[in-house]
Each structure stands twice: as C-alpha cells, then as structure tokens.
Amino acid sequence: MNSGPVARLDNMTKKNGAAGSRKNNRGQTLVVPGEDLGDSEGFEAGHGVMSISGRLKAVKQGRLKEKGRSISVEPTHTRYIPRPGDLVIGYIEGCTNNIWFIELGAPFNAILPMSLGPGKIDFGGTRSVMDIGEAVLCRIQEVEETHSSVVTMKGMGLRKIRSGVIEEIDPHLLGRLIGKGGETLRRLKTETDCRIVVADNGRMWIDGELDGILDVRNRLSAISGDSNGGTN
Amino acid sequence: MGGYGDMQMIDENGLRVDGRSPGDIREITIETGVIPVADGSCRMTWGTNEAIVAVYGPMEAHPRKIQRQDRAVLDVAYNMAPFSTTDRMRPGFNRRSREISKVTKDALESVVLLELYPRSKIRVTIEIVSAEAGTRCVGLTAASVALADAGIPMTDLVVSVASGKINDVVVCDLNKEEDNYGEADLPMGILPNSGELVFLQMDGNLSQEEFKEAWQYNMDAAQVVHEMMVEALKRGDSQ
Amino acid sequence: MTIPIVPKLLRAHLSELSGKNARIDGRSQWEGRKLEVEHSVLPRAEGSARVRMGDTIVLAGVKFQLMQPYPDRPNQGGLMCSADVRPIAGRHWEAGPPSPEAIELGRVVDRGIRESGCIDVDSLCIIPGEKAWQVILDLFAVSDDGNLFDAFALAGIVALRNATLPAERFEVGKDYPLPVSKTPIMCSYHKVGGRFVYDACAREELGGDERIHITLGDDDNVHSLQKGLKGIFSTEEFTEIMTNAQGRTKELRKIVDSL
C-alpha cells in the first residue's frame, strides 16, 4: 500500500498505545486505527489488523479479539462484504431487458441475470416479473473484482418477498441475534409467532401478524441498543 | 499572510493575545456519532472553530466514470457554512474550498486502505459551522476521526495542526489574529504513530531554524491532540 | 438529491399499521418525536439555534448585512431566508446546485416567517434611502431523518428571536436585540398508509404520499400553506389537521418562549 510519507524527522517519537488501552463495559480492550498491538512473532493478523515491520497494528476501530494465534478487531459498525454462497436480501434498484440491479447494502450492487431469475421470462419482461422497489431473497453466486457480483434465485427457498417487513441490523450483531446453535433466533420465532429469515447482509425478513412483527422489532432494538450497534 | 509584525501580539511576559504561551494549543473538544443517519461522524471544536464531518460508505460509486476497478475512491468535500464567519460567506462555488477539499482528499487517501473496497466510493463531507483560523486542520483531523467511527480501515489517524510566526516568535496553533497579521503559517497533517506526514502547506517567511521550530511544535501538538482523539473514539465505543 | 427506491413492502406495511392506528416507530397519529431546542450555539452568527426532532438535526444562523434600500421603499430593510441541504445530511442528498426539494424547503419556510410579519422590515431602516439592515437567515441540515420542514421552521424562528443587531461592528450605534413581534410555527402532516400523521420520520416519508405544511401565528392566524407531492386530500382531512395544528403550534410556541 502506498502511504506516501512526505518527510520524517530524526527525533520522532514512537507512541505505544496512545491513551492506553481502555476497556468497554464487557471488559474488552478497545483499539483505534494505528494502534500498536505488539510483536507479530508467532501471531497472525486477523480482520482489522495488519502486520508491518514485525509489529501488529490495528487498522480499524473496535474491540480487540484474541483467538488462538489470531489477533483481530471486531468493529462497532461493519459494512457487509459479499461472499459466494451468502444468503442475502436485496432491493431491486433498476433493470434492463434481461438484468436486474440489486442493492445489497454492500459497497457495490449486484446483478441478477434473467437466466438466474425466477422461472421463465421473455426478454424485455423483467419489470413485469419483479419491479423496482421489490425485495428478493437470493444467494451470491460469484464475486469478482473485474465485474459486478452476481446473485441467483435458483435454489431452495429463494424467492421474491411478497409480504411482511424487512429490518436491518449491523452485520456484526448477527451472531448475537442467532445465538448458540440458533437458540436465540428459535426462541424469537416461537415467542412472537413470526416467520423470520436472517440473511448474511444484516437484513431479515419477518412475516406474521402485525403484533408479532412489532414485537420482533422491539426486541431487535434491544439487541442493537444494548451493544450500541444501531440500526440503519 | 497580512502585515509583517506591526501588530503587537506577544506581550512582555511572552503571552499571546488569548493568554497562551508560544507552545500552547487552543481548547479542543471531540465527539463521535453525532449524525445519527451517517455511517460515521465527528464533531470537533478547536478554539472557536467547529467542524462537523459525516462519512457515508463504502457504497456504490456513482457516477460510473469516477469508479476505479482497483480501489475505492474518496469523495471529499470541504465547505464553510454561510454563518461560519463574521462576514457572511455566500454559498456556492468557492476556489479555496475546492483546493482544501482536494488536499484533504490527498491526505486521507494516503491512510485509508482503499484497495479493500474496489469499485466503491466513500463520501466524506466536512462542514465548518464556525471558523477561526486553521479550519483546514480541524476539518482533516475531524475527518479521520469520522472515518474511524465509520469502521473504515486506516493505517493511522491523521492529526493536522498549523504553527507559524508572530512578532518574530515561532508559535504553535495560530488563532485568527495571528493567522491574519503574523509572518508565517505552516499547516501539517501528521500520522501520530510514526511521525510521517500526509499533508503539508506553508506560506510566509521563516528562516531554516524557525522552520524547524514550527515543525517540531506541530509534531508535539499532534501527540497531544492524538490522545484526545483516541479518548473520544474509545469513549464513544465503550458505552 | 437522488430519489431513493421505495421498497414496495414498506407501503403495504404502513397501510397495515395505519389501519390498526399504529406507526412504524411506535408513536400515535399526532405525536411528535423527541424534541431538543437550543439557541445561541454558533459563535460567529448574530443569532442561532439547533433543533433536534428524533434523529433529524438542523442548525439555523442569522447574519446581518448593511444594504441600500430599494428606491421605491427607502425606509425598508430586507429579510432573506436560504435553506441548504448538503450531502452531510444524508446518503440521498447530492452535491451541486440546490435540488427542487431543497428549494421548496427554503421557500416554504421563508413564506411562513415572512408572511407572519414577525420581522418588521420598516424597523430595519438606519438612514432612509441610504442604509438599512438586511437580515439573512441560513438554514442548514446536519442529519435528515424526515420532516426537515418543521425542524427548519422552528430553528429559524428561535434563531431570529435570539438575534442581536451588530450595530457596534458596523459603527451605526449600540447593539440591540432584533425586534421580532410574533412567533410563527410550522406543523407538517404527511399522508402515510392512507391517513395524515404529524412529524413523519424518514421511513414514513419514503413510503408515504402527499404532505401539507401549515404555519400559524400567535393568534392562530394562518400565514402560509403548502401541499407537496402527489396525492389527493379532502376538506375533512384538512380540517382535522388544521385543528391539530392549532394545538401543536401553541405547545411549540410555549417552548420557544421558555428558552
């Protein structure tokens, strides 16, 4: 990476840990970009961490996580980055005669070619099948740097979403939402009597009676508010 | 720069018009998460300066022509609100704001890990709602805090501060009168963990010794401000 | 601004909610969001205010300039309102010349303040035919989570009521408070899921239809009205929101008076 230093003084000071590590109310150490995390010897740089000249350095703001040899940073806000195989909920932002453009809440949109769409459609008939503003449950087919990522609706359970609501939570809270072995999510479904599908891009589809939906929404606020993640 | 030391800005005790010693920085406050709808934000006051910065993204880069296949692009805009200056500032195209937007972008692009988000765009909007010399410095500093708040990966935070010379005395962190009537202005953008630079401008008249003195003032000030930035970021996260 | 896509499910959901007399954020039909109002928050402005309604945050700044009165009105100064919604306030706000949405915002707020006569332009004269004050109110959005109209209008009147004419700086006398004879207040109603609600949040605006803005003065006098966006409404619907506006503007005026 080209950091382009302009000049360097002879007597510059190397500050280690600036304001000192501070812990949050869960006893986790908080770090900021540029913070030195110690010698890299014997350790692996995980998410949000880089190894430079024998030292590990945080490049994201968040909570320090140590798992075995891997040192990583769990950020407060995460942006969803598409990976092949991910289940996602997207909104149709536009279409041509044979492609839909899907907004995923990611750094870039995806395309859904007609061949991977729902059922059989004639060329030019895209909008009559799925219009702008509609929500779809689909899967990431491929992600490549040279072109837009591709999603598919060919697969079990993948479909246009016709009822219910879509809520959003920060992707890094998905683990807490689902719980160990899916326990928390299971309980949420039975207690609110709602159908809930949680997608990997931090969106969830909730369907059921209005009271159940409002109940789910309240519990979601509690999860987000509790960890200061916030909803979008 | 304005006059050449005609105005008396250092008294017999070596104190400046606002009571500071030559090496003192103006009072600073930093808050994060101040714009609820943004992905990251920061509000920073520095003397009578106040900057509010919002970060959105990474998101789809529109229009298509600004998109880069190999990395994200930073869309940085610096602007002064009409009520930010004593004489109202007319909104609209402003060359100074355009230049500051560009050099701020150049500085931030040097630390943000842009390669991680190819084809996308990160928007950084810097609004100065109250101005008092050194607005480009507070803008750049607050922008780096806002980027961290948004979870954008960076090799370091950026601290920007301007030192200069008044009445032949080198001083740290120029205020409004010192900027208007002093003899030199040296703003720098510093990476606090390494002491490297991503931003550098200067105008006025400094000898080589005076230049080194002003340079060192900025370096020292950057360490102090950096501590406050780290504290603000961690405070916002620990709640 | 870029018009954001309207999720189809949102509209259906808002209809269902309104049918059950509920709103997407749990409020009742006429309930406003949490309100915070401060004045004199901008050191370089001669009057200023910050208003927060839910997650919508705006600033208002009053600046004064000297002007030459128009030849046909030698004893009058001027009042100018300008609204700017810059990209800082939201993803969908773009850089560039003001969009039709931003222009409408500014003009609607301007009319509400101007038509109430709360600023007497005759009192702004310094030397007839030569010098008069021009009052410039700049409205600035910081965070847009819906209903910038009411936030701007409230911030504007609070800033004006706490403004001081900088006569000393312009060497025309001693500083004194800007005379503001009344307190016009705007209330905005948005048709969401088939019925009007007060103080719509961003999602309600996104999935809603037309909106109506009502500015009332101290005596319940009507000073400005505006209907925006596509949609049809009845006299009964209008009467209902006008009644609500009479009550709500009084509440807000009390808050402004207490600052």
Overview of this protein structure:
Chain A is an alpha+beta fold. Helix content of chain A is 16%, strand content 35%. In chain A, strand 9 and strand 10 (99-103) form a beta hairpin. Chain A starts with 21 loop residues before the first strand and ends in a 6-residue tail after the last helix. Mean pLDDT of chain A is 83; it is low at 1-20 and 227-232. Helix content of chain B is 28%, strand content 29%. In chain B, a hairpin with a 2-residue loop joins strand 2 (40-46) and strand 3. Chain B has helices at 95-109, 135-149, 176-181, 208-238; strands at residues 28-32, 40-46, 49-60, 73-80, 120-130, 159-166, 169-171, 184-191, 196-200, 203-204. With 239 residues, chain B is of the alpha+beta class. Chain B is globular, with a radius of gyration of 18 Å. The longest helix of chain C is centred in the last third of the chain and has 24 residues, at 235-258. Chain C is 28% helix and 29% strand. By secondary structure, chain C is of the alpha+beta class. In chain C, helix 2 (100-115) packs across helix 3. Classes of the chains: A alpha+beta (232), B alpha+beta (239), C alpha+beta (259). Chains in contact: A-B, A-C, B-C.
Relevant terms:
heterotrimer, A: 232 residues, alpha+beta, five-stranded mixed β-sheet, five-stranded mixed beta barrel, 4 helices, 17 strands, 16% helix, disordered N terminus, disordered C terminus, B: 239 residues, five-stranded antiparallel β-sheet, 10 strands
**What count of helical segments of chain B does DSSP give?**
4
Strand content range of chain C: 25-35%
**Class per helix and strand makeup of chain C:** alpha+beta
Subunit organisation of the chains = heterotrimer
Helix count of chain C, per DSSP?
5
Q: Widest sheet of chain B: strand order?
A: 1-2-3-5-4
Averaged pLDDT of chain B: 93
Helix-strand pattern of chain C, N to C?
HEEEEHEEHEEEEHEEH
Using a beta-carbon cutoff below 8 angstroms, give the protein chain pair with the largest interface and the number of residues from each chain: A-B, 47 and 52 residues
**Structure classification of chain B:** alpha+beta
- Any low-confidence stretches of chain C, pLDDT <50, length ≥5? none
Beta fraction of chain B = 25-35%
Question: What's the order of the H and E elements of chain B?
Answer: EEEEHEHEEHEEEH
Give the rounded overall mean pLDDT of chain C: 95
Global morphology of chain B? globular
Return Rg of chain C in Å. 19 Å
Helical amount of chain C: 25-40%
Q: How far is it from the N-terminal to the C-terminal residue of chain C, by CA?
A: 34 Å
Distance between the termini of chain B: 44 Å
